UniProtKB/TrEMBL annotation:
A single GO molecular function term of this UniProt record: uroporphyrinogen-III synthase activity
Name this polypeptide is given: uroporphyrinogen-III C-methyltransferase
Gene3D superfamilies tied to this protein: 3.40.50.10090, Cobalt-precorrin-4 Transmethylase, Domain 1, Methyltransferase, Cobalt-precorrin-4 Transmethylase, Domain 2
Pfam family, any one: HEM4
Entry-linked InterPro entries: 4pyrrol_Mease, 4pyrrol_Methylase_sf, 4pyrrol_syn_uPrphyn_synt_sf, 4pyrrol_synth_uPrphyn_synth, 4pyrrole_Mease_sub1, 4pyrrole_Mease_sub2, CobA/CysG_C, Siro_Cobalamin_biosynth
Enzyme superclass (EC): transferase
Catalytic activity, EC: 2.1.1.107
Assigned keywords, A-Z: Cobalamin biosynthesis, Methyltransferase, Porphyrin biosynthesis, S-adenosyl-L-methionine, Transferase
Length: 508
């Protein structure tokens, strides 16, 4: 039997940046990813094409899968010869039942690897500006699960009193038993005025922190409607929060930005400034079902005066086919290469090509004007031909402009657009709960596809969301559907849109 392998991966407490490099590598290798509720969905964007996703989370006490069912899936997928990534919140061995899952794998003779994660035990207090130890305040810390029946335990912190050492106590999964925990601690001798903090959704945009003495924290938590997931930190280190609080001071803290295309580096500055990115491409790209027209154009590539690449995808899919047919860059000698947008020009450089023409305005109308000027380089009587490798839903405006100028345009379908729906349920939930604050759209299709996915609930879900767009055409599609565009940069680039989002938030 061909047995696969299971990677047990700790994904950290929520901030996507807290996963390890080795954890990302396991996600990239996986044929199947079994993930929990607390996983930041952005981590799933590292998965390879065709990877299978299995949701095994628990929310509000409701289990999507029982532990026995999770164990069975891990075994079954591995025995099918697949690489499985079991993606768990925090660290898999810190109150994460990771040990139980690995025992089953061992008994079944399945190869496994443990990839530790950043535990909420240290990360969540750190994001709240609370160090769990401090040379002058606390020399140790204790981690205790708070979801067991603590009333049946004789003592919670006997060892602390015995050592007579200053120590920090951290209770995980503590909301349900908060009254019991704090009452018992005071009964056992902890001073009622001991500082404490309860932290909900630590490291995420929803992070909420309530501080107070141990005698009042349970009441304060109820007053501020603190619900799971949350942890309780007890000790004098809580007093450092006033000085060390840093995460909530980031300019974009509290914002979750919806990215409706594949993530690129230009968006990451939003994360640097405190926002969380929810990556949900409403458009995916595939090769054409029929290569006849594209192959015909490639075979006569030397007959063209220009090749106009409208997007990075056009570059990628064109050259994949171009090279697969045995062509190389020498076949492009004498052909002017035009790029719509800096990102498109950047992708051309990956193939060793510097674009000859890049318009200052990144749209097809501006490109058409530039090409009209270039016509004179070929003489008035010479027949000018342009190749325009485009998508199956490309607008005809560019081709029509070229035809008016006397340029013959061939526009073979070079790639297709499709609508992915993976993880759509989580996006719908985030929108319903008001967890998306800004939605970005880079084309009419990215917007229209999202509306189609949301269906009748779209209007209600997007009502309180600020919409950012690239280009007048996208803005027209959004406004034509009855929505307001709040953010639109002068230049139609992702970089400019990101900068416009930052300015918009800072002006609010």
């Amino acid at each position: 039997m061909n047995k696969g392998k299971v990677y047990l991966v700790g994904a950290g407490p929520g901030d996507a940046g807290l996963i390890t490099l080795k954890g990302i590598r396991a996600i990239q290798l996986a044929d199947c990813i079994v993930y929990d509720f607390h996983i930041n969905p952005r981590l799933l964007t590292y998965a390879k094409d065709g990877a299978e996703f299995i949701y095994a989370g628990k929310r509000g006490g409701h289990h999507e899968m029982t532990q026995d069912e999770i164990n069975r899936v891990l075994v079954e997928k591995a025995k099918e010869g697949k690489i499985v990534c079991r993606l768990k919140g925090g660290d898999p061995f810190v109150f994460g039942r990771g040990g139980e899952e690995v025992e089953i794998l061992y008994e079944e003779g399945i190869e496994f690897e443990i990839i530790p994660g950043v535990s909420s035990v240290i990360a969540v207090p750190a994001y709240a500006g609370i160090p769990v130890t401090h040379r002058k305040i606390a020399s140790a810390f204790t981690v205790i699960t708070g979801n067991e029946d603590l009333s049946k335990q004789d003592r919670i912190f006997t060892h602390i009193r015995a050592s007579n050492a200053p120590e920090t106590m951290i209770f995980l999964m503590c909301v349900k038993n908060l009254d019991t925990i704090t009452s018992k601690l005071i009964q056992e001798g902890l001073k009622p005025e001991t500082p404490s903090a309860i932290i909900r959704w630590g490291t995420r945009p929803e992070q909420k922190i309530v501080t107070g003495t141990i005698s009042e924290i349970a009441h304060l938590a109820k007053e501020h409607k603190i619900s799971p997931p949350a942890i309780l930190v007890i000790g004098d280190v809580v007093g450092l929060r006033e000085k060390l609080n840093w995460y909530e001071k980031k300019p974009l803290h509290g914002h979750r930005v919806l990215i409706t295309r594949h993530l690129t580096d230009e968006y990451l500055i939003l994360e640097d400034m405190g926002a969380e990115l929810f990556v949900f491409p409403t458009i995916d790209f595939l090769p054409p079902e029929d290569f006849t027209d594209l192959d015909r154009a490639i075979e006569k590539i030397g007959d063209y005066s220009f090749i106009v690449f409208p997007s990075p995808r056009a570059v990628k899919f064109f050259f994949e086919r171009f090279l697969s047919l045995g062509k190389d860059m020498r076949d492009l000698k004498g052909v002017l290469i035009c790029a719509v947008g800096r990102e498109t020009a950047k992708n051309l450089k990956n193939y060793g090509i510097n674009a000859d023409i890049i318009p200052e305005e990144y749209n097809s109308e501006a490109m058409a004007k530039l090409l009209k000027v270039e016509i004179y380089r070929f003489g008035q009587n010479e027949k000018i031909r342009a190749l325009y490798p485009c998508s199956d839903i490309a607008l005809k405006g560019f081709s029509e402009e070229m035809e008016k100028a006397g340029i013959q345009v061939d526009a073979p379908i070079t790639y297709r657009t499709v609508k992915p729906t993976e993880h759509g349920k989580r996006l719908v939930r985030f929108l319903r709960e008001g967890k998306i604050t800004i939605a970005t759209f880079t084309s009419p299709s990215s917007f229209n596809n999202l509306i189609d996915i949301l269906k009748d609930d779209a209007k209600k879900m997007l009502n309180e969301v600020a919409i950012a767009v690239i280009g007048k055409t996208t803005a027209k599609a959004v406004e034509g559907a009855g929505y307001k565009v709040s953010i639109m940069p002068e230049k139609s680039t992702i970089k400019d849109m990101v900068e416009a989002i930052i300015r918009w938030v800072q002006q609010k």
